Structure formats: structure tokens, C-alpha cells
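Most newcomers find our protein records easier to grasp once they have seen one. To make this concrete, we reproduce a full record directly below:

…
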Amino acid sequence: MVINRGIDELLLLQLIEAGALVDAVDDNGEAPLHAAAKKGQLGAIFLLIENNATMELDAEEGTGQTPLCSAVECGRVEAAQALLQLGAKANPRVLYLGHLQGGKLHRILSSSTSSLSAQLGCGGTALHMAACDGEAAAAAWCLEGGAATDVQDDQGATPLMLAAGADDAEEGHLVAVKLLVEHKANLELQDARGDTALHYAAKEQNAEAFEVLVRAGANLEAENGKGKTPKLKDGKCGIM
């Protein structure tokens, strides 16, 4: 098994023996284990974990950017396998990115016991990420795998809100809206500001998503926390 030598393992060991903190983070919030995972350096990964490096350290608090996530994001199959075998958890971000990567990574992660309805520290799920990114195939995979449609993140947003209110919405966002509606997503849930999915579509002037929601029965008279309602006029939508 070939190991990328981007990190000098002998120097790493010397630093650890000299008292260096294995979980010290850089300006991006990443620890040495993140760096080793990104580079696929198995020797460094084992050395760091043997010296009590934290496998669940989140580079961006609440987002799930753990060393395993870094390995998956960079397509490092062997590093991801090693981390899983050593006890790393496949959080929602890991599952989502693994699906996007496809191939062996997706198969490995799909066999994990992690739930597609599990939430990150920020409250988001894999379905939230797929909806937000307009990754309709990933959204369909989540739904087929039993993901709950109406989980709200720490701001109260649901996957439907994020798909409907996408900035610079693309076809994938509209497909995700239709999928979520087909799977009986709640159209009237409100976020922390009182906005519904219809408000989200109206604010970003996503007229096609707006029309899909209205046809599905979304309430045009729903008021948000400021007493504003979503409206559609002459093919354009907005908040009034």
C-alpha cells in the first residue's frame, strides 16, 4: 500500500513526542488529522489517532467538516475506510458527499449504520444539503432512503424552503422542489422568521418553484413575522 509522503511522519512523531498538540488547528479550523485525511496519508492517520487525535473534530462548528469528511471530499477511499474502521462516524455531510463522489466511496458509506435523517450540529441533514445545492439525484436518493422531509435546521429552514429559495436557482432546485412536494413535504412550516417555503421562493423570485408550491396548495395568505405575504403577479413573485 503506497502512502503519500506529503507529511513527514518521522517529524510528526518527533513533534508529538516533544509535546505538540495533536488537535491544534490552523486558520481554517483544521487539525493535522484533517490534513492527513485530505492527502490520504494512512501512516500519519494511524500515528495521530494512536496519539489521541480527535476523529470528530469539526473544522467549521456544526457543519460536519470532520477528518472523515475531508477524506471523502478529496476522494481518498483508503483513508475513509481506515477512519471508519477506527471508529469515525459518517455524519450527514459525509453521507451526502459520498453520494456525490459515487463509486466505492458511496458503497462504503451506504453500508454504514448512519441515518439519512440524522442532523448536524447546525440542524441540517443530507437532504438539506442536496436541496440547497440543487442536487436533485442526491435529494431523490435521500428520500428513497427514508430521509424525513420536514426536519428543520437551527434557523427553522426545511429542505423544501432551501430548494424553493435558492439564490440563482437552477433546474436541479426546481426538480428538488417537485420531489419534496411529491413526498408530502409540509408546505406551511415556518422558519425562525415566520417564512414558509412560498416566502422563500417569492424572496428569490423563483417563479417556477412558487407556482409548483401554489398548485400543491401552499397558502398565499400566510404571514411571516413581519406580516408579509408571498404574492405572484404578471409572472413575477415577491413579498408584500
Summary: Residues 1-114 form a domain with the Serine Threonine Protein Phosphatase 5, Tetratricopeptide repeat fold (CATH 1.25.40.20). Confidence is low (pLDDT under 50) at residues 1-5.
